Amino acid sequence: MQRRLDGRVALVTGGGVRLGRALAEGLGREGASVAVHYHASREGADAAVAAIRASGARAEVFQADLSRADSVRPLVEDVERALGPVSILVNSAARFDRVPFLETPDEILDANWALNARAPYLLSREVARGMVARGGGDIINIVDVGGAFAPWRNYSAYGMTKAALAALTKSLALELAPAIRVNGVAPGTVLPPEDLGSDYLEVLRERIPQKRFGSPMDIVETVLFFLTGPTFITGQILPVDGGRTLETGPAA
């Protein structure tokens, strides 16, 4: 039985942990040949590759420090040499540093910028050249409601760089059309950090209209919607947040 992504090659950054791993495995279940990128999480990347192969699709692991600009071209070259031309890029790798604004050191700001904003820019440029030459492709950026819609307190560096990624999504949708569609998914509270504490997490949960946190599969299914659903969609950023961005507090 043919699967929805049979014949396509997907590069998923940050594919060894958390949401990135769920995305890599989800695309593999739909038949894509998946390049699972990782920086330090080799064990998780290997596990993702094993799961994808068990589902009947091809997969390989690729290591790169995407905070280094000179790592981007070799990564794409290695992926295409091993699996074939990339037709799907999922920019998922990110830092998520919780630091009050007045205490944020330059190093944290620079690290967030390098991975959350510059790396997707450079990777998109690298793969888009081939996509345009071949006549098509998809770029999916994993943004965040905290960058695209409503800021998170104590995440100024993260939110600023995710806002830049949201702007990049729209810019590329204009510049790369009609060959390439570029869309974004903005998760709300999905896989929240465990170190926030149960009381704080309960406060977060109560602020979500659906009164629950999202699951990785909510994001996977949204990415698959952009990849396999209506083709007349580009430049859109879809919040997947249980209605959190609708919450404005009590009426005055």
TrEMBL record:
It comes from the Bacteria. PROSITE patterns: ADH_SHORT. The keyword Oxidoreductase applies. Gene3D superfamilies: NAD(P)-binding Rossmann-like Domain. Keywords: Oxidoreductase. Belongs to the short-chain dehydrogenases/reductases (SDR) family. This is SDR family oxidoreductase. It comes from Archangium lansingense.
